[in-house]
Design a protein that fits this description.
The protein is mainly α and 136 residues long. It has one domain. The chain is 74% helix and 0% strand. Helix 2 packs antiparallel against helix 6, helix 3 runs antiparallel to helix 5 and helix 5 packs across helix 7.
C-alpha cells in the first residue's frame, strides 16, 4: 500500500489504463455523464452543496475542462494510456475524475478485479468498507 500512496494521480491513471485498457472508454463515458449531470442539475446541486475546500464553481470548471479534453482527445485517449492519464488525471481536474471513479466503483456490484483496483488506487483505506461488503 505504501508504494501506491507515493504515486501521483497521473501515475495512478496510467497504471489503471495499463491494467484495464478495455475500460478506458467506459471510464471516459462515466466522467462525461457525471460532468453533464453537474451542468444539467446545477441549481439543485448548488442548494445542497456543502462548504468545503472546493467550491461548486471550481467543480464546474473542472467538469468543463474534463468534458472538453475528452471530446477533443477522445481518439488518442482510447489509443494511448499516457494521453488517458494526462487528460483525465492532471492538475486539479483529477479530483473530479477521481470522484467519478469512486462513484463508478460503488456501482460495480461484484468485487471484480477492476473494482478492487479502483478502490486501491483512488480511495483512502478508511473508505474501503464503503466499497466492499463483509460477510455477516
Amino acid at each position: 500500500m505504501e508504494a501506491l500512496k507515493k504515486l501521483s494521480n497521473q501515475q495512478k491513471g496510467k497504471l489503471l489504463a495499463d491494467l484495464f485498457p478495455a475500460y478506458k472508454e467506459t471510464i471516459c463515458d462515466t466522467v462525461e455523464r457525471s460532468c453533464a449531470y453537474m451542468f444539467e442539475h446545477e441549481k439543485e446541486i448548488r442548494l445542497h452543496w456543502k462548504t468545503c475546500l472546493i467550491t461548486y464553481d471550481a467543480w464546474l470548471t473542472y467538469a468543463q475542462q474534463l468534458g472538453d479534453a475528452i471530446r477533443k482527445h477522445r481518439y488518442t485517449i482510447y489509443k494511448s494510456n499516457t494521453v488517458f492519464a494526462d487528460q483525465l488525471f492532471s492538475d486539479q481536474k483529477a479530483a473530479l475524475t477521481i470522484q467519478c471513479i469512486k462513484e463508478f466503483a460503488k456501482a460495480i456490484q461484484k468485487e471484480t478485479h477492476l473494482k478492487i483496483a479502483l478502490v486501491l488506487l483512488f480511495c483512502e483505506e478508511r473508505e474501503f468498507p464503503d466499497y466492499f461488503t463483509t460477510p455477516q
